[in-house]
């Protein structure tokens, strides 16, 4: 048996900076790096980063905590605001609006999930939308925020939260953290990738100035181009554009007008959708669209015409194909972030998928033998993770009643993956959420989008009939009042941020 100290990874090379590169560097510096391990990140100041992923999911809090990041300090540095969910406007039909909350509906307890009680009562009585029974939704609509309570019996404990942040400032913050942890930044544009002729592993990258950077483990954070995983190792790509046809985006920050709100907004337009992400110092805006139905100039004009404030930069144009590399770990190369694949940012999953890849890489941290057991496990787990995110995003498009444009006619009538079709059928028939044992989106998330997109169950769970109807209606009214009261006890988000984490950049 080989001496484990002789085959340990000693030289890590991260190719590309941005959010993916510096998240990877910070995690390795904090959780893996040893005194005899060298970690270098190669990036060129001449190559811009994509800059998407300004809206996050609650999982980022655990990632930051694991890295020892102080929340208030981080939020000040990144001009961040809090996020209780995502508001979807005009997705089911024009004029509709719902919020996918980072929390549950109803109160803890009950013989069946809360939405079954609401389904029964709402058929014959004016009990209001299910959104009225969710603390994070009511708080979000009123622009209020405070961290959830610790008491699990309290309605104020029934939600989580994420952040809306400046991705460029987040990368800069993580760069400082990484360099303080011993990561070396190497400036330069890569012009050549060299492989070991004996085993096919990556051996080095050569920079424009002639410098050769060798390594044991290479992590590809080079973005859409996949400099290592695709251009050098030819991983191949699973193209999902037949289900997710949006292939372009234009993004423009603008000045803030009015108070910030603790949610991201996604408004469905005729050829895609517009995002709005409120930060402390500005608002992030973008139009994610399908180039088959609108051209770049028209999409840019459409977005500019919908801005609430003065544009702060020139439009940034992106091109992409929804999908995933056929393998995201090959030999001694691991793809993290956009180099591994891309699913449009509708549910703010970009940073989460970076985090998931980093977490799994650290769990399966290799040695220089790079055995296939760990590699295959990583690829299998990331395939499952990404495909489940894919299905959830497809649901938003497919479950619509819109027929006012070519895009919506296409997605409404298209065939969807069997893995999603069976889930929709089960919920429509019996109101049951077919949950994954592993995966990002849990029960309340699926309920929010199903009901928000008008996938209404034909029946409710029979256990609900154990409760007397008068008792059920009275209980729902008390709960609705309690949710409203709980939400209104919270301060406004701007007041809370002003006391807790005001950014100097926004001042």
Would you write up a description of this structure?
- The chain is 34% helix and 19% strand.
- Among the domains are: 10-80 and 165-240 and 322-388, 3-Layer(bba) Sandwich (FAD/NAD(P)-binding domain), CATH 3.50.50.60; 248-319, no CATH class.
- It contains 14 helices and 21 strands.
- The chain has 507 residues and is α+β, with helices and mostly antiparallel strands.
- The chain has a 7-stranded mixed β-sheet with strand order 5-4-14-15-16-13-17.
Average pLDDT value? 95
Using only C-alpha atoms, the radius of gyration works out to 24 Å
Q: What's the architecture of the domain at 10-80 and 165-240 and 322-388, going by CATH? A: 3-Layer(bba) Sandwich
The number of helical elements comes to 14
How many β-strand stretches? 21
Helix content: 25-40%
Shape descriptor reads globular
Give the strand line-up of the largest sheet: 5-4-14-15-16-13-17
Span from first to last CA?
Answer: 61 Å
Strand content: 15-25%
């Amino acid at each position: 048996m080989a001496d484990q100290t002789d085959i340990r990874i000693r030289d890590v090379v991260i190719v590309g900076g941005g959010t993916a590169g510096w998240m990877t560097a910070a995690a390795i510096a904090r959780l893996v790096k040893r005194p005899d391990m060298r970690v270098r990140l190669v990036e060129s100041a001449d190559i811009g980063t994509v800059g998407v992923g300004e809206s996050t999911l609650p999982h980022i809090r655990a990632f930051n905590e694991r890295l020892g990041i102080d929340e208030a300090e981080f939020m000040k540095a990144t001009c961040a605001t809090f996020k209780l969910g995502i508001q979807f406007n005009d997705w089911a039909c024009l004029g509709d609006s719902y919020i996918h909350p980072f929390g549950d509906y109803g109160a803890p307890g009950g013989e069946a999930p809360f939405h079954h009680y609401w389904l029964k009562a709402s058929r014959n009585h004016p009990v209001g939308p299910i959104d009225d029974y969710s603390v994070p939704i009511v708080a979000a609509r009123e622009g209020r925020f405070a961290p959830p309570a610790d008491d699990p019996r309290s309605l104020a404990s029934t939600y989580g939260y994420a952040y809306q942040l400046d991705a460029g400032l987040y990368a800069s913050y993580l760069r400082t953290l990484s360099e303080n942890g011993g990561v070396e930044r190497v400036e330069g544009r890569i012009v050549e990738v060299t492989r070991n002729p004996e085993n096919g592993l990556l051996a080095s990258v050569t920079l424009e100035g002639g410098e050769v950077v060798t390594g044991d483990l290479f992590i590809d954070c080079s973005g859409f181009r996949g400099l290592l995983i695709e251009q050098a190792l030819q991983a191949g790509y699973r193209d999902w554009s037949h289900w997710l046809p949006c292939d372009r985006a234009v993004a423009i920050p603008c000045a803030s007008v009015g108070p910030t709100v603790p949610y991201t907004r996604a408004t469905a337009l005729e050829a895609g959708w517009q995002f709005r992400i409120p930060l402390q110092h500005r608002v992030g805006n973008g139009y994610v669209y399908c180039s088959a139905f609108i051209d770049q100039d028209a999409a840019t004009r459409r977005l500019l015409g919908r801005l609430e404030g003065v544009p702060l930069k020139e439009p940034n144009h992106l091109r992409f194909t929804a999908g995933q590399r056929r393998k995201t770990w090959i030999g001694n190369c691991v793809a993290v972030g956009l180099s591994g694949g891309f699913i449009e940012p509708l549910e703010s999953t970009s940073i989460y998928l970076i985090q998931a890849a980093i977490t799994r890489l650290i769990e399966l941290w290799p040695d220089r033998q790079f055995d296939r057991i760990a590699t295959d496990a990583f690829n299998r787990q990331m395939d499952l993770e990404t495909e489940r995110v894919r299905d959830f995003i497809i649901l938003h498009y497919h479950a619509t009643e819109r027929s006012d444009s070519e895009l919506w006619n296409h997605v409404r009538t298209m065939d969807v993956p069997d893995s999603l079709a069976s889930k929709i059928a089960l919920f429509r028939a019996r109101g049951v959420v077919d949950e994954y044992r592993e995966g990002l989106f849990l029960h309340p998330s699926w309920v929010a989008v199903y009901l928000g997109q008008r996938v209404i169950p034909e029946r409710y769970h029979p256990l609900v009939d154990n409760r007397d109807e008068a008792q059920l209606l009275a209980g729902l009214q008390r709960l609705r009042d309690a949710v409203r009261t709980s939400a209104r006890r919270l301060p406004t988000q701007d007041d809370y941020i002003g006391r807790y984490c005001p950014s100097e950049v926004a001042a």
